[in-house]
Each structure stands twice: as structure tokens, then as C-alpha cells.
Amino acid sequence: MTIGEKLYEGKAKILYATDNPDVLITHFKDDATAFNAQKKGQIEHKGEMNCAITTAIFQFLATKNVPTHFIAQIDPTQMQVVAVQILPIEVVVRNIAAGSLVKRTGLPLGTSLKQPIVEFFYKNDDLGDPLINNDHIELLNLATSAQVQQLRQMALSINQHLQELFDQCRLTLVDFKLEFGVDRQGKILLSDEISPDTCRLWDRDITDTQARIMDKDRFRQDLGKVDTAYREVMTRVQAIVLAMIS
User: Fold this and answer.
1) Which of 111, 123, 146, 202 could cross-link to 172 by cystine, CB 3.0-4.6 Å?
2) So what's the pLDDT on residue 198?
């Protein structure tokens, strides 16, 4: 398959066309950003690690009948994906209070929520990706009410499956962000990536509130050893998923 023109470049990935209009190539970069790209840097081998982690997780989700845009990993930093129209909505699922939820509610960091919370954010860098509700989504024509309901149901289902996976990896899934796209047949597919860039993950074997962090918060908070944390997540996830699907 021939890689064609660059279609889009975001903070963490580049999307390329191919000679098949239904298939695209996603390239994972080493670039790291935080706070709506106000903080920038690089994490050594991040592209390879996030590509590997996302591949393993999408393979795991396929066994749970979760529809995704993933086709195959073709290179350490590249994967083939189904061409989709990305919905301009970031779907965040929260199991434990952290990040902006703590800032907005005053809940103590680490508070276990009675049930998972699903939040929607408008995927718009110029506006700072603001928190939105169903009425905002309808007002801005970002998705239909049926699609919003499906996004919520899919997000909660994915949360259950990811908790199952990360439990076996001795990691606590604090919260995570999902993106979805619509393929040419109108089907909603989980898209983008699932990695330490998009999840908050805490090591269950460590009690120290900083040392336990295994995700991009290490970059956000200048905690160091970011690449070490990502590599440990990759090693654990790959081992568990390989055992499941082999």
C-alpha cells in the first residue's frame, strides 16, 4: 500500500492518505504537549510506545466486539486505519477524581466516584476544548441526539473493558479521553488512540501520589521519567493482551 499526501497533522499524530480511499495511515510522533499546547516538548520513543499500546488495546477491544478504526500496525510508529470523519467531540470517562474534575468540583484528588462520569468537550483548540452538554452539541450541530446517546453507551462499555484490562496490568484507570469517527457507511467507530497520552493511569503497587503516575501527567507536572512510565505501561499491556488473544 502506497502512502500518499499528508491530510492532517495534530499535536501527537500525522494522518496520511493511501492509494485506497477507505484506508489511511496514522503516524505517531514523539512530540508532547499539555495545557492546550502551551507546554511543548518531546518524549523519547513516545511514538513507538503509543503506537504499540494503542495497537494492543484496540486488538483487545476487538475481542469485546467494540468497533474501532484500527486495521493493522505496519511500522513501529504507524498503523493502517479505516477512513472516518472524526466527530468534533472529545468523550471523557472519569472513575476517580483528578485533573479538571478536581478543579471544577473541589473533590479531593483520588476520590472514587460512585459511578463513572461521562463528559463531552468541544474539540476546538481556538476555544480551549470547552466542556459542553447535549444542548450545546445540538446547538452547534456537532452530532445527532442518537449519536450522542451512542457515544455515551460506547464510552461506558469501553470503560468496563479497559478497567478489566488495566486491572490485570496492576494499573488503576483514573480517567481517559476517547474520540470517535463515522465511516462511509455511517457507522460510529472508536478512533484516534488509547495510550498514556489519553489516559490517567496509576500504578497499584505504589502509594506515593507522584511516583504512582504512569501517564502524561508526569510530563505536565515535570515529574521526570516520562519515557520510563510509558515503556512500563507498554510492557504490561502487551503482555496481558498477547496472553488473551494468543
Assistant:
1) 202
2) 98
Instruction: Find the angle CA(11)-CA(15)-CA(18) to the nearest 5 degrees.
Output: 170
The 10s digit of each residue's pLDDT in 1-10 is: 788 899 999 9
- Cell numbers placing 198: 489519553
Strand stretches in the chain, DSSP E: 3-9, 13-18, 23-28, 31-34, 39-42, 70-75, 78-82, 85-86, 89-96, 112-122, 131-132, 171-182, 188-191, 199-203
Find out whether 32 and 219 touch, Cβ atoms under 8 Å: yes
Question: Rg of the chain's alpha carbons, rounded to an integer?
Answer: 17
**Residue 134 pLDDT greater than 80, yes or no:** yes
Sort residue 237 into left (φ over 0), alpha (ψ -120 to 50) or beta.
Answer: alpha
Q: Which sign, positive or negative, has the C-alpha torsion 93, 97, 103, 105?
A: positive
Evaluated on CA atoms 232, 235, 239, 242, the torsion sign reads: positive
Q: How far apart are the first and last CA of the chain?
A: 27
Q: 204-223, pLDDT tens digit by residue?
A: 999 999 999 999 999 999 99
Short-list 36, 16, 13, CA closest to 24? 16
